[in-house]
Amino acid sequence: MGHNQNWDIFKPVFNIPIKGEKGRAKNLLWMDEVNEVRRVPAHATEKRRYKIEQIRFVDEIYVAFSERLIRETGDEYLEYIH
């Protein structure tokens, strides 16, 4: 199975465009941003803190991802954790 075939499987859930970003074949930049947020507790320092924009961004991605996952799987259980 080639990369394009793999992407076709995952695209309905993982293809989440970031506001202001256009023209990308694969909208996966959100993963980089989420990884940056993950680094705050994973590599803690006194100066490293969450920014309100990061919290909002993670919340937006969570909602978008959850909605796509529910739509694609039809799993009613997921609606309760959304």
Q: Can you describe what's shown?
A:
There is one protein chain. The chain is mainly alpha-helical and 82 residues long. It has one domain. It has helices spanning 3-14, 29-42, 52-73, 76-81. Helix 2 packs across helix 3. The longest helix has 22 residues, at 52-73. The mean pLDDT is 87.
List descriptors.
82 residues; mainly alpha; single chain; globular
Summarize the structure.
With 82 residues, the protein is an all-alpha fold. The chain has one domain (3-81).
What are the SSEs and their pairings?
Blueprint: H1 3-14, H2 29-42, H3 52-73, H4 76-81
Helix pairs in contact: 2-3
The biggest sheet, with number of strands, parallel, antiparallel or mixed sense and barrel status, is:
none
User: In angstroms, what separates the terminal alpha carbons?
Assistant: 32 Å
The amount of beta strand, in percent, is under 5%
Helix content: 55-70%
Question: What's the helix-strand series?
Answer: HHHH
Strand pairing plus helix content: what structural class? mainly alpha
Average pLDDT figure: 87
What's the gyration radius in Å?
A: 15 Å
Counting DSSP H or I runs of 4 or more residues, the number of helices is 4
| Strand segment tally | 0
Q: Give the uncertain stretches in residue-range form.
A: none
Tally of discrete structural domains: 1
Which of globular, elongated, flat, extended, rod-shaped describes the shape? Answer: globular
Oligomer: single chain
